[in-house]
Amino acid sequence: MLRTFQQTRIFGQMNCVENMLISVPHRKMGFWESFGRNTAAERERAEHLLDFVGLYEKRLLRSGSLSFGQQKLLEFAMALMNEPTVLLLDEPTAGINPTLINGLIDRLKRANSEFGITLLVIEHNMRVIMNMADTIYCLAHGKMLASGSPSEIQNDQRVIDAYLGAH
Predict the structure, then answer these.
(1) Residue 164: how many other CB atoms lie within 10 Å
(2) Going residue by residue through the chain (167 aa), what tens digit of pLDDT does each one get?
(3) Which terminus of the chain is more exposed, N or C, with fewer CB under 10 A?
């Protein structure tokens, strides 16, 4: 199980490939010892995942020079490097240019279908959730308000009252 953050956690002075390679779990080595110990297969996987998220052409750029949306894509790719079975995403579309949102939604869906990763997403952008989720759990004031399919949630009067105000 892994998670991504609302604010990205990348190494801004390193390029994208280096960020990917530092994400490889080295269970018997310390953080500093892991530098330079990556295999050709790990480097190939890093480049494949950068291609998967649409950052292959930027793979050698310093990651701090990427747009915020591209940094979020990089962080997503870094998480995929660890082959999680469950990935928790905190506000994956927050602060992202609207033109990148559809691409991110597509890549999240593909990660689920192609890699079998279960995604647990905290998101306030309802369009994103409605286009991505199979099941939605809606919370209000720290308590479960409703759960169901996107269409069930959209039509649930408790959700409408809580988030849109009662008429």
Answers:
(1) 8
(2) 666 665 677 878 899 999 999 877 654 555 555 556 678 899 999 999 999 999 999 999 999 999 888 998 999 999 999 899 999 998 888 888 888 888 888 999 999 999 999 999 988 888 888 888 899 999 888 899 999 999 999 899 999 888 766 55
(3) C
Using alpha carbons, list the distances in angstroms from residue 72 to 16, 63, 128, 135: 12, 11, 15, 24
Kindly list the structural domains of the chain, giving each domain's residue range(s) and its CATH number in brackets, ordered by start.
2-123 (3.40.50.300), 133-167 (no CATH)
- The residue type of 62 is R
What gap in Å lies between CA 68 and CA 97, rounded to an integer? 8
The contacts of residue 157 (CB under 8 Å, 6+ apart) are none
Distance of CA 45 to the CA centre of its chain: 18
Tokens at 66, concatenated: 């990427």
